[in-house]
Amino acid sequence: MLKVAEEFVSIQGEGYLTGVPMYFIRLAGCSVACPIKKYCDTDYSFKYEVTAKELYGRALVWFDEVSCDSYALDWVCITGGEPLDQDISELVALLRAFGKKVMIQTSGMRDISFDVDWLVVSPKSDRWQDLKIQKGHELKLVYRNQTPHLMAEMYHWTKFHSYFLQPYEKKTNYNTQETVDMVLHMCNKLGQSWRLTTQLHKSLGVR
């Protein structure tokens, strides 16, 4: 059984696939010790429990509602909380067998034993050694005044297609300028290809 917080259709608001329409499945619960947990902006509280096949069936209904003859919703984003706290391998296999591309957004603190189409790691630890997942498509780090040395190590010892730095939200305030400054420092001074990402969906006032 899978514990679910919510399901909805919107655009991806962060990272490499910003702007892409997706069906979101937010799973409930997060066992990861996170330094910003008390300021977490995500409601991943438990709402209902379903089997992987039942959740897949619910997804098919959503696909039907938002697709037409000339357009089909291609992407499914499974997020949390921490989605890898639960066994989602069957759900991912069902979705991919149906022709959907699956993105997983995880802290990287849990192992993954199955293939996905886009793997996003958003570390909750500043030490690359703490990550169980050290390679994937995208690493997205929330900037909490980490030192250039810590960020350089994260970049050097992991293998991701893209590296993003995201402003830290604390009680609706963002450290955007500091984040921009650090991206420029990492690129111009250390030669590492970090990029800025924001939370576009929040700026637009959508989910």
Brief characterization of the structure:
The chain has 207 residues and is of the alpha/beta class.
Describe the protein in words.
With 207 residues, the protein is an alpha/beta fold. The protein has a single domain (2-204), classed as TIM Barrel (Alpha-Beta Barrel). It contains five helices and eleven strands, in the order E-E-E-H-E-H-E-E-E-H-E-E-E-H-E-H. The strands form two sheets. A nine-stranded mixed beta sheet has the order 3-1-2-4-5-6-7-8-11, with helices on one face. A two-stranded antiparallel ribbon has the order 9-10. Helix 3 links the parallel strand 7 (135-143) and strand 8. Helix 1 (52-66) runs parallel beside helix 2 (89-97). The longest helix is centred in the N-terminal third of the chain and has 15 residues, at 52-66. The chain starts with a strand and ends with a helix. The mean pLDDT is 91.
